[in-house]
Amino acid sequence: MGILGWIATAKWSARFLGWTKLPEWARGQLQRQTGVVMARGLEFFPTREILDRARTYDELLARAEKIDAAYVTGRKISEHDIPNIRHIHRVILPDPRSKSLVSYAIGIVNSPELQGYIIRATQDAKEKYGIEVRWYPEMYHASFMVGDSVKKSGWVHIELTLPFSKPNRRPSFTVTKDRCEETVAEFAHVFEQMWKASRPPDEAYLIERESRPIIDLRDLDVSR
Asked: FRET label pair with 157: which of 36, 49, 71, 130, CA 20 to 30 Å apart?
């Protein structure tokens, strides 16, 4: 195995791409083997599977001291023991009561408990980690995290969550402030505006609907 093959099979291959100024041909070789598309200040991951091979969720959280996040379900908050989750200060989730969320759930055939995920993520974020949570009134179609937006080391990570998209096939990308300051600033602004338009979770509703799924898709004709 040559040096390029060794690097491509190593866990740190994506980071290696970011740290080094390789010739274009060498960078292209590594990108073809890892699946990660690299440019100055940008990491593009064609699927979530490729992202997970390149770095873990916790490794991304470790890159910043203060993170604001807008998630579609927040499942990672509930399903994983993440040491660096303490770096998340604020979380926005869609209001599980919204009609637009029901419509979105119908398109995600493998997510009949979408509402349940949001409820559990809300409770875990608040009770386990002391994260401030608000619910946005409608569904949105991109999840994102903004890390240390006021620092030179700031970044934003964005995942597209369009209706009917398969979660493990969704593309995402990370942009760093040192190369794309305007992009990081814009998403920091978007988060603040969404935060103002959001409201604290309804505690009575959380208790009432804690264990109930939003909808059973088996009872619906999702082909229409």
From this structure: 130
